[in-house]
Amino acid sequence: MVLSAIAGYLFFMSDPRVTYGIPAPLLASLSFAVGLGLVALSVSILLPDYRFAFEIIGIVLLIYALISVKFPILTSAQSGFPLLNIFIFLIVLKVSFHLIYGNWSDNLLVLDTQVDRSVTVTDVDQLDLWETFFPDPNNVGYYHDETTEKISLVSGQANTFHVLNRFKNGHFQEMMMQFDHVKPTWSYRYRYEVIGAPELKRDRLRSCTVSLEPRDNRTAVHIRWERPNYAVRKAFMHWVDDWAGRRLDKMVHRADVLHRPNTNIQV
Q1: How large is the angle between the packed helices 24-46 and 52-70, nearest 10 degrees?
Q2: Of the candidates 150, 148, 129, 133, which has an alpha carbon nearest to the alpha carbon of residue 214?
Q3: Same domain for 124 and 242?
Q4: Contacts for 228 with CB less than 8 Å, ≥ 6 apart
Q5: Could you tell me which residues come within 8 angstroms of residue 197 by beta carbon, excluding any fewer than 6 positions away?
Q6: Domain carrying residue 78
Q7: Has residue 46 been placed in a domain?
Q8: Model confidence pLDDT, tens digit, residues 29-48
Q9: Residues 214, 155 within the same domain
Q10: Which residue among 50, 82, 101 closes a domain?
């Protein structure tokens, strides 16, 4: 919405018209933001897998608006090239999509350590949160990740779990979780490795830290992911999509649903 609002303002920044006391640039900015925002909200609810499409559209609109301001002759209808607008827009769309979603840069632009963190406050009881967040091989149905099919302790390795996830598309994933800090009902930290996934440095595995904090008869949940050697492209998309915030909200919502009175659990 912010990107589309800026784009709308740039498109009409030289328009002197005033409608109901509102300057044309401001009206265009509001219209772009509200229009694209409503469409994006509808699609996000009906087709959540396509929410990224509107992020790239917002970016493309902003880039196209900047081009129209810097080089008005190229995007003007009086330039003698009425189809040039369409070609420029499509080129910008293709280049932007490739730069943001293409994996060409994953081996070139890499962060030494990427951090995702989020905090939320909930009315869910601290003990209920712990029971949902911490893996229990005997209560897989109460785990916060709905895709988890099996949790088992690894023999000979203390505080190490083997986790099997099966997704809706039929694919599955195996992961090793090694806990190096556990303070029951309060906090834990584990390092994890997806079996079969390439790891650039095996001595620096990804980690996740969760802590629960009582706060005014409620519970504050802190979560932090650290990923070494992480692609800048992926880190950027995590930031744009508020990946950590959405993930934490799902975890807390899962705990709330599972421990809500008269809730039937399908295990």
Answers
A1: 160
A2: 129
A3: yes
A4: 112, 113, 114, 200, 201, 204, 205, 206
A5: none
A6: 2-101
A7: yes
A8: 777 777 777 777 776 666 66
A9: yes
A10: 101
Number of domains in the chain: 2
One domain for residues 14 and 86: yes
Same domain, 96 and 129: no
The verdict on residue 247 lying in a domain is yes
pLDDT at 152 over 90: yes
* 82 and 150 fall within a common domain: no
Give the C-alpha separation, 120 to 40, whole Å. 25
**Residue pLDDT, tens place only, 175-186:** 999 999 999 999
Q: What is the pTM of this model?
A: 0.65
Where do we find the tokens 């219209």? 31
For 60, counting Cβ atoms within 10 Å of its Cβ (0-12 exposed, 13-18 middle, 19+ buried), the class is: buried
Closest CA to 63 of 3, 1, 104: 3
Are 180 and 74 in the same domain?
Answer: no
